[in-house]
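queue> pop job 88
queue> type: inverse folding (structure -> sequence)
queue> payload:
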């Protein structure tokens, strides 16, 4: 029996998300747990998985469209089911699909196309979005702005890929119906260099009105807006205080070298950051008052330790969470971090992997940064900023020797955590790092 697939709430308090692309074309079957479509939230790309076997009778929303949570996005049927009159079946389910008389159809759901930073046509805040009646290789086609009197048609995904590659869609030869530019066309253009670099008026460097240096406006992405809003809120509403420490890490470096001795390649190797993450988890078990988050009605204290790890990606900063650091072995922590980093950079994290945790670890040591202070990722209670390991003169038994030192800064939310508690935690962390065998016990 036909049924509607609606935009799920893949993140708490989510209002809308972008349906990035369909993984299953119309009239194609799928099995339970198969990915039907890919949805992009402000921080993650999430696959919508099928709850049972079935077939996609009709896709109601094209790729690249922003859709409200709960709005219908597809009509599904049972395996092998055929529906002669799809419009009638949709009407019975309360979805009206009027014909536009030009080979297009639209749904009654509230959707809007994602705003085009280049000024392309984007029907925002409308109740209907007209789309092509059929999809070609998963790409739905939309018209762009006229260029020299000619309208270039391209899928939203193709436009985004061209923009990211610095190419003009109008210079790419389309292989879709009526010369439409599809994803494969952009990928081919990037591969063989057929397309000319984009140089429209919005992206070209402009002279400042006061006669200063030229500039280029880079439109905000959804993730960049989300990061700006979240961290601005954190800095404005979370009372930060900071504790700093300088650690001797000679033993830690030797332990890491011994662990990695004989391991070829990156798989299985342990990084300095992995040891720091494990030490943070251990310190949280030693000072459980730090393993908390602030809630309006109470301070929530956790029984397990989940640690977020900051990952820089092309799309922005992400903080996937390593679950149960207190119970994982060092090798398991390293494997989990490695997996999360790889999927963060490829845009394949699930939303739930970005939620939770009471503390984050952010490391800029690989860039030679000696020391810095980070902004807390709400609703977490703390974030540890890790600098670079440096060889410096240190005093040992009254004598000056060369030692390896590491500087860290702990940013703490003063609402659930007092200064003395944070100091005890930092003391425990320093003890663990300077006596690293304790990290493994």
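queue> result:
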């Amino acid at each position: 029996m036909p049924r509607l697939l609606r935009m799920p709430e893949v993140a708490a308090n989510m209002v809308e998300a972008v349906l990035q692309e369909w993984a299953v074309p119309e009239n194609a079957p799928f099995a339970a747990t198969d990915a039907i479509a890919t949805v992009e939230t402000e921080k993650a790309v999430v696959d919508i998985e099928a709850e049972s076997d079935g077939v996609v009778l009709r896709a109601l929303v094209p790729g690249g469209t922003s859709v409200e949570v709960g709005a219908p996005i597809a009509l599904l049927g049972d395996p092998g089911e055929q529906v002669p009159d799809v419009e009638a079946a949709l009407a019975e389910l309360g979805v009206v699909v009027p014909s536009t008389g030009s080979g297009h159809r639209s749904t009654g759901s509230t959707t809007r196309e994602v705003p085009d930073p280049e000024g392309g046509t984007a029907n925002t805040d409308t109740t209907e979005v007209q789309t092509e009646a059929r999809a070609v290789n998963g790409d739905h086609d939309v018209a762009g702005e006229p260029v020299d009197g000619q309208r270039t048609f391209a899928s939203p995904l193709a436009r985004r890929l061209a923009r990211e590659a610095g190419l003009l869609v109008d210079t790419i030869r389309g292989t879709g119906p009526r010369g439409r530019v599809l994803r494969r066309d952009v990928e081919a253009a990037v591969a063989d260099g057929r397309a000319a670099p984009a140089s429209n008026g919005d992206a070209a460097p402009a002279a400042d009105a006061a006669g200063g240096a030229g500039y280029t406006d880079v439109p905000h992405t959804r993730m960049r807006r989300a990061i700006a809003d979240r961290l601005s809120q954190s800095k404005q509403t979370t009372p930060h205080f900071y504790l700093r420490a300088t650690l001797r890490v000679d033993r830690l470096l030797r332990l890491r070298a011994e662990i990695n001795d004989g391991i070829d390649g990156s798989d299985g190797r342990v990084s300095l950051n992995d040891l720091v993450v494990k030490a943070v988890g251990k310190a949280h078990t030693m000072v459980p008052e730090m393993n908390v988050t602030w809630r309006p009605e109470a301070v929530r204290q956790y029984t397990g330790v989940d640690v977020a790890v900051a990952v820089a990606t092309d799309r922005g900063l992400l903080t996937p969470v390593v679950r149960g650091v207190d119970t994982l072995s060092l090798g398991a922590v390293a494997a989990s971090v490695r997996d999360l980093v790889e999927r963060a950079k490829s845009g394949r994290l699930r939303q739930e992997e970005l939620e939770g945790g009471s503390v984050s670890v952010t490391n800029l040591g690989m860039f030679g940064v000696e020391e810095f202070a980070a902004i807390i990722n709400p609703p977490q209670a703390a974030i540890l900023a890790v600098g670079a390991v440096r060889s410096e003169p240190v005093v040992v038994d009254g004598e000056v020797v060369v030692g390896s030192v590491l500087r860290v800064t702990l940013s703490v939310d003063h609402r659930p955590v007092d200064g003395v508690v944070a100091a005890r935690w930092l003391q425990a962390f320093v003890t663990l790092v300077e006596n690293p065998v304790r990290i493994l016990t």
